[in-house]
Amino acid sequence: MASADRAVLNAMAKTVLSIQSAVTYGMVGNAVAQPALQRLGCDVWRIDTVTFSNHPGHGAFTGRIVPAPEIAQLIQGLDNLGVLDRVDAVISGYLGSADTAEAVADAVVRVRRANPDAIYVLDPVIGDGGRRFVKPGVAEAIVDRLLPLADLVTPNPYELGWLTDGIANDEIGALAAARALRPRLRQEGLATVVVTGVPQGHDRLTTLALTADGTLRASQSRIARSTNGTGDLFAALLTGWLLRDGSIGMALARTIAGLVAVMQATLAADADELRLLDALDRVAAPAPLWPVERLLSSS
User: Which of 77, 107, 162, 284 is deepest in the core (most CB within 10 A)?
Assistant: First the structure.
């Protein structure tokens, strides 16, 4: 690549501060978000909230929760360095403790002070399939400290129901709950709720995106295998495409197409972890784009 071309590419590169889990074995949290975002041309500054041997869903695991003061020190260090104005987006995912939410909130506030155009994408990792799997106080801290700062939130039906004290087990319930949730986000920003994995009959899942301009829907076949990290990958890809294109509709179409490509690679390899690296080229240039339809007003 010529130096002039490289300079243009660097000028266009977006920077994402990614605050979520880290595992030695597996593709969840920052382990999946970092390579996905980098393949989309983003610089990724990662801060790990936990360092585990593997996803707890495998059963036994070792490691530790990173203390909130350590996370706060890393953010303070970036602020001292004077580089937070380069951050275009903050993503937060799995939090090891309730105290971590305060450190994340501080990071978002500091980034926005340095770059008012930066967005905050909240993946409210609380649970799934009717089961809550975060430590006591984490879900409440997400609601109290992080939700009011978020521009975009990506809950699954269980998390959406928990955030709204509602039931979001089908499209009607998810739409109602998402409409109730959207006004609680930061209204100066995107104020977008993207609900993933909404059941549609027995064999399909729907993704719903509620924005100030209306409601978008994408539907795909239910995949027989449940693999850890799909929500983390979805949030990362959606953020990366949104930074590149600015359109939630196009970002959603590219994100789902890329996610399906990764799941196809995972099934083909009969793997128990996402085979992201096998599908990176299709993630970066998804074709065809996944169909996304516009529904009714979200007001």
Answer: 107
Q: What are phi and psi of 199, to 5 degrees?
A: -60, 135
Residue 225 lies in a domain: yes
In a domain, 299, yes or no: no
- Give the largest Cα separation in the chain, rounded: 55
Taking only the tens place, the pLDDT of each residue in 157-203 is 999 999 999 888 899 999 999 999 999 999 887 899 999 999 988 88
* Per-residue pLDDT at 297: 57
Domain membership of residue 278 (yes or no) is yes
Task: Determine the Cα–Cα distance for residues 211 and 252; give it in Å rounded to an integer.
Answer: 12
CA–CA dist 276, 156 (Å, integer): 21
Q: Omega of the bond prior to 288 within 30 degrees of 0, cis?
A: yes
- Provide the whole-model pTM: 0.93
Print the domain residue range for 129.
3-294
Round to whole Å and give the CA distance between 244 and 71: 28
Q: Helices 248-268 and 230-245 meet at what angle, rounded to 10?
A: 140
| Helix, strand, coil tally for the chain in percent (to 5) | 45, 20, 35
CA–CA distance, 197 with 230 (Å, rounded to integer): 10
CATH number at residue 223: 3.40.1190.20
Cβ atoms of 166 and 139 within 8 Å: the answer is no
Any domain includes 174: yes
- Enclosing H/E stretch for 3: helix 3-12
Count of the separate structural domains present in the chain: 1
244, with CB counted inside 10 A (0-12, 13-18, 19+), is middle
Residue type, 25: Y
- Beta-ladder partners of 215: 210
From CA 248, how far away is CA 190, in angstroms rounded?
A: 10
